[in-house]
Amino acid sequence: xxxxxxxxxxxxxxxxxxxxxxxxxxxxxxxxxxxxxxxxxxxxxxxxxxxxxxxxxxxxxxxxxxxxxxxxxxxxxxxxxxxxxxxxxxxxxxxxxxxxxxxxxxxxxxxxxxxxxxxxxxxxxxxxxxxxxxxxxxxxxxxxxxxxxxxxxxxxxxxxxxxxxxxxxxxxxxxxxxxxxxxxxxxxxxxxxxxxxxxxxxxxxxxxxxxxxxxxxxxxxxxxxxxxxxxxxxxxxxxxxxxxxxxxxxxxxxxxxxxxxxxxxxxx
Length: 268
Description:
This is Glycerol operon regulatory protein. The protein is an alpha+beta fold. It is built from nine helices and eight strands.
């Protein structure tokens, strides 16, 4: 929704959503002019709607008068995927307890990976993601661990699309990525090093919601200086993924936040 949305006939709901979308990719406070520019709304319209959102508690202002997400909206957001997080969180915490490293659980949303939970380690490692954050599928270990077990048309849709280069080491060649996905599907895990953020590397394994049906991926992050230690964590990562799989298998299908689809090609 972010971007130029000041179209004729635009509904009030669309305008409000375009304002909220201005906060989607950054946790920092935004000025009125920034929100106006990013939402595509006139400052007068943005100011009026922000006032209503502030009264309700969806946004709040800091000491400099800049806007940020309000506590009421944050509280509301905690209900999204709550049962899923309640099932997975104990296993994620146990994984952290066994490794003392940053670990996370992610799913696919379109051509991006969406981080739904994370436990941070105390050791310093450059952070590229956060809970609720998104990163390109092709550039992350969790993303490739998911994509390797998706249907072929999903892989093609992602690899034939725009492959953003986040660092000089980001792999963006479709042929190279297809070969790597094939290898991942054989060995059962994915690796990535400094492809999103310099100084960090990651190992990830797939998490299935049913035999042959991918749900997401479980990953662990280390500083690049310790990249040689990544694969030592593979057994505990795989064991935790199996425990999460067993846990989510008992959830009603409607409870699971299923990965969103990219555009599926029509049959001729």
